[in-house]
Automatic annotation (TrEMBL):
InterPro entries, per the entry: Isoprenoid_synthase_dom_sf (IPR008949), Polyprenyl_synt (IPR000092), Polyprenyl_synt_CS (IPR033749), Prenyl_diphosphate_synthase (IPR053378)
Originating organism: Hydrogenophaga laconesensis
Protein name, per record: Farnesyl diphosphate synthase
Annotated Gene3D superfamilies: Farnesyl Diphosphate Synthase
Similarity comment: family membership: Belongs to the FPP/GGPP synthase family.
UniProt keyword Nucleotide-binding present: no
Xref: NCBIfam families: FPPsyn (NF045485)
Entry superkingdom: Bacteria
EC assignment: 2.5.1.1, 2.5.1.10
PANTHER family according to UniProt: FARNESYL DIPHOSPHATE SYNTHASE
Length: 303
């Protein structure tokens, strides 16, 4: 990682990040039900609360703030994205997919609650995500609800996260070239991160050109996140990561490190993040410092 002081090191950003993470946590505690029947609520809360960087919600909130968006709608969108992310982790960790036992520093949901309850918890979290985007109290317009639902559905579905996971499972033991590897991860990881940005933008008003540049920024952050994730899988330990280290190599999955080598993968992550910063500068937004800092945070994270 770059040794120079970045925006992600500044006191202002750290304070902003902590305040928004705390607000997201309180909202999730309020909206994820503890009283769902037959212990389902316990599994849902276990999957979501008290863990994770909340990067996706932070991207929603930072983008909404940058475009002068609707604060209440942005918080609902931020939590909806996090619920989709959480459900995907619950399902991805199950024996039928990645068969992992550690997530966010604790046993995975299927290890703690059993496979059937984990499957149902993921299903319920997915449904709750869209419920949050269509509140019945008139706090969001029908048009905004519809737009946010569509953006999230596209990112989570066959041409987004679910499709990318299907490609990932089909690629075990396959030597993918760089365009194919990028295409897989732009769906599996990148689509939801990009949607976090575009959903934040959808809570406010911005020109079509600015929206397109924000979408490009989100795509760059999503790709960089995955490259750094591949790097950390071979350089960090399980305690630091909060999940099983070395899992990709053990499963013979194609990664940016296996394709490029460690040094070249890091250089590639740096180039993609530089592109994210350049895209933001071209957007003309007056309040993009937090988005710049989030990009730096993605590139410099240790877990």
């Amino acid at each position: 990682m770059n040794a120079v002081l970045s925006l992600s090191d500044t006191n202002d950003f750290v304070a902003w990040r902590q305040a928004r993470q705390d607000a997201v946590e309180r909202a999730l505690e309020r909206w994820v039900p503890a009283n769902a029947p037959a212990g389902l609520g316990d599994a849902m809360q276990y999957a979501v609360l008290d863990g994770g960087k909340r990067l996706r919600p932070l991207l929603v909130l930072a983008t909404s703030e940058a475009v002068g968006g609707h604060a209440a709608a942005a918080m609902r969108a931020a939590c909806a994205v996090e619920l989709i992310h959480a459900y995907s982790l619950v399902h991805d960790d199950m024996p039928c997919m990645d068969n992992d036992v550690l997530r966010r520093g604790k046993p995975t949901v299927h290890v703690r609650f059993g496979q059937a309850q984990a499957l149902l918890a993921g299903d319920a979290l997915q449904a709750l995500a869209f419920e949050l985007l269509v509140p019945g109290d008139g706090s969001m317009s029908d048009a905004m609800s519809a737009r946010l639902c569509r953006l999230l559905a596209l990112a989570a579905g066959a041409d987004g996260m679910a499709g990318g996971q299907a490609v990932d499972l089909a690629s075990v033991g396959v030597a993918l070239d760089q365009p194919s590897l990028e295409a897989m991860h732009r769906r599996k990881t990148g689509a939801l991160l990009q949607a976090s940005v575009t959903m934040g933008a959808a809570t406010g008003s911005a020109s079509p050109q600015t929206l397109a540049l924000l979408a490009e920024y989100g795509a760059c952050v999503g790709l960089a996140f995955q490259v750094v994730d591949d790097i950390l899988d071979v350089t960090a330990d399980s305690a630091t990561l909060g999940k099983t280290a070395g899992k990709d190599a053990a499963a013979d999955k194609p990664t940016f490190v296996s394709l490029m080598g460690l040094a070249q993968a890091q250089a590639y992550a740096d180039r993609v993040l530089a592109q994210a910063h350049d895209t933001l500068r071209r957007s003309g937004l007056d309040h993009a410092d937090t988005l710049h800092a989030l990009a730096d945070w993605v590139g410099r994270r240790a877990s």
